[in-house]
Design goal:
Blueprint: H1 6-20, H2 50-79, H3 87-97, H4 103-109, H5 122-143, H6 148-162, H7 172-185, H8 204-227, H9 230-233, H10 238-244, H11 250-256, H12 260-276, H13 285-305, H14 311-319, H15 325-328, H16 339-351, H17 359-387, E1 395-396, E2 404-405, E3 416-424, E4 437-438, E5 440-441, H18 461-469, H19 479-488, H20 492-495, E6 498-500, E7 511-521, H21 527-530, E8 535-547, H22 553-558
Antiparallel strand pairs: 1-2, 3-4, 3-7, 5-6, 7-8
Main location: endoplasmic reticulum
Function: Involved in the maturation of specific proteins in the endoplasmic reticulum.
Family: Belongs to the lipase maturation factor family.
Length: about 575
């Protein structure tokens, strides 16, 4: 290579300039935003949670949206004016029981916006609450931003439904959503609607509130199993779980027929995730991230293997608090002006000179400290419950459902029972040649040939309660007699909760009865599976005897229920 070639001349010229102290008058170009001086993409720093807040709010808004969607579709039929358990009757009974108390005391015992509304049209009230919740949650889900007022509105609206929802809202995930939603209020600024509110960084106290929540959820679920059914200790529970869970899905059919060693592995893995992994939260950033990843993967497996409403989707939400901006950065696009780029600039500003504290920041810090003190105080009975050998699960200790106990499947049923509702047009219900026709529910097992449904995160509340009713008697579940009366009258609202009405386009049945069956999954490759049957069922006996519309008149009047149809 010639020494006077351009490739050799450039370094030489540079060397002469350095020796003489000469510098080029042209200034060096600044690195592009979001890039380091070498021109490569800049990486977010650890320890900030701007993007974490966006992900948390979107995830929480998604669960709220599903919950309010379920409420909008089903509340009228379950707790409306002519619902199976009308909330107007429930409110009046509650009001009568506390008639010697002040209005504020009654409200504090059961806080709900419905106390302030006109009860003459409860269906409209319930729809209004659900539609408001759908609208606000949609806004937060789409934009990823919220303020305290919007999140408090979501929390108050859903609490208003839970507190009047009677047995239909008695599931543990209702309180879990309210506690998660309460923490979500303090993620946000008071007024500002911005995805990156510059003067309101995500509070570490609130983040630890979410982490404390997922710690209690998982540890509570693990302890209730170890202290509960023996099959959790001898590792045989998964031999039964997929078949006997409330609403199985198609994947559960195949998982149920897995080898025995796979079921033992599942049970051991469950104990590891619920009893040991929660303590990773307190072992530093990397262990906390591992905790979050494992918990989210565990919930994803549960979603795939069963229809557990929005429970597992909701349980993912507090796990997101384990990740900082550096961990979640891959979820967001890069480039000048992007959220990622703006967070990087805010991180640089934080590392520089600290701004003078603003009055709003001081108030916010005081509010966060107060929240931490409140959570610590309300956690005392919850911790005592966790440590107790008589641990109870899915219980709240205050009417606001702020800090609660959790747990799931402390005992596993070894056989699956189902209640099948049947009707007949025959005038003689006891005749041996009477033809009885089955009603089909939206999701719960009925027709053995029908494929199990796949609906998570949606939730059919009636189907779940039918699962519980099958292990009790109809005397413990008087709403099922109310349902039978509505079927006798071909009530349109009640029938909308079902998948198939055998009397559609015909006069309503003269009699309705409940039959008790035992269900088992068919064996793949076996005779029943070859006939297209997912289930094999065997009759146990009568659940409740044949009922006619006329003989239910006094039963309905005693309970203050509206009479279905023209009695």
């Amino acid at each position: 290579m010639r020494p006077d070639s351009p490739t050799m001349a450039a370094p030489a010229e540079s060397l002469r300039r350095r020796k003489t102290g000469y510098s080029d008058p042209e200034p060096e170009s600044l690195p592009a935003p979001g890039r380091d001086p070498a021109g490569s993409p800049a990486h977010l720093h650890t320890g900030t949670f701007w993007l974490t807040r966006i992900v948390l709010l979107k995830a929480l808004a998604f669960v709220y949206f599903v919950a309010f969607l379920v409420a909008f579709h089903q509340n009228k039929q379950l707790i409306g004016d002519r619902g199976l358990l009308p909330c107007r009757v429930f409110l009046k009974n509650f009001q009568q029981y506390f008639q010697d108390r002040t209005s504020w005391e009654v409200f504090s015992y059961m806080p709900t916006i419905l106390w302030l509304m006109d009860w003459s049209d409860m269906n409209s009230n319930l729809d209004l609450l659900a539609l408001l919740g759908l609208g606000i949650s949609s806004f937060v889900l789409i934009t990823g931003c919220a303020n305290m007022l919007l999140m408090a509105a979501l929390w108050g609206l859903y609490m208003s439904l839970v507190n009047v929802g009677h047995v239909w809202y008695s599931f543990g995930w209702e309180s879990q959503l309210l506690e998660t939603g309460f923490l979500g209020i303090f993620l946000c600024p008071l007024w500002t609607l911005s995805r990156l509110p510059q003067h309101t960084p995500t509070s570490r106290i609130v983040l630890w509130g979410f982490r404390w929540l997922i710690f209690r959820i998982m540890l509570g679920a693990g302890l209730i199993k170890i202290r509960g059914d023996r099959c959790w200790r001898d590792l045989t529970c998964m031999d039964f779980h997929y078949e006997t869970q409330p609403v199985p899905n198609p994947v559960a059919y195949y998982l149920h027929h897995s080898p025995w060693w796979f079921h033992r592995f599942e049970t051991l893995s469950n104990h590891f995730i619920e009893l040991l992994v929660p303590f990773f939260l307190f072992l530093g950033r990397r262990a906390c991230i591992i905790h979050g990843v494992l918990q989210i993967l565990f919930q994803a497996v549960l979603i795939i293997s069963g229809n557990l409403s929005f429970l597992n989707w909701l349980t993912m939400v507090p796990s997101l608090a384990c990740f900082d901006d550096a961990t979640l950065g891959f979820l967001f696009p890069s480039g000048p002006g992007s959220l990622k780029d703006r967070v990087l600039q805010m991180q640089r500003d934080i590392r520089g000179a600290r701004p003078k504290p603003r009055f709003g920041s001081v108030v916010r810090r005081a509010a966060n400290v107060s929240l931490g003190v409140l959570l610590a105080w309300l956690s005392v009975p919850v911790v005592l419950n966790l440590l107790s050998s008589r641990q109870v699960m899915n219980t709240h200790f205050n009417s606001l459902h702020i800090v609660n106990t959790y747990g799931a499947f402390g005992s596993i049923t070894k056989e699956r029972a189902e209640v099948i509702l049947q009707g007949t047009a025959s005038s003689n219900a006891s005749a041996p040649d009477t033809v009885w026709e089955d009603y089909e529910f939206k999701c719960k097992p009925g027709d053995p040939s029908r494929r199990p449904c796949l609906i998570s995160p949606y939730h059919y509340r009636l189907d779940w309660l039918m699962w519980f009713a099958a292990f009790q008697t109809y005397e413990h579940n008087d709403w099922i007699i109310h349902l039978a009366g509505k079927l006798l009258a071909s009530d349109a609202e009640a029938l909308s909760l079902l998948a198939h009405n055998p009397f559609a386009g015909r006069p309503p049945p003269r009699w309705v009865r409940g039959e008790h069956y035992r269900y088992k999954f068919s064996r793949p490759g076996g005779r029943h599976a070859a006939e297209g049957k997912w289930w094999v069922r065997k009759r146990i006996g009568a659940y409740f005897p044949p009922l006619s519309l006329e003989e239910l008149r006094p039963y309905f009047r005693d309970r203050g229920w509206p009479l279905p149809g023209p009695l």
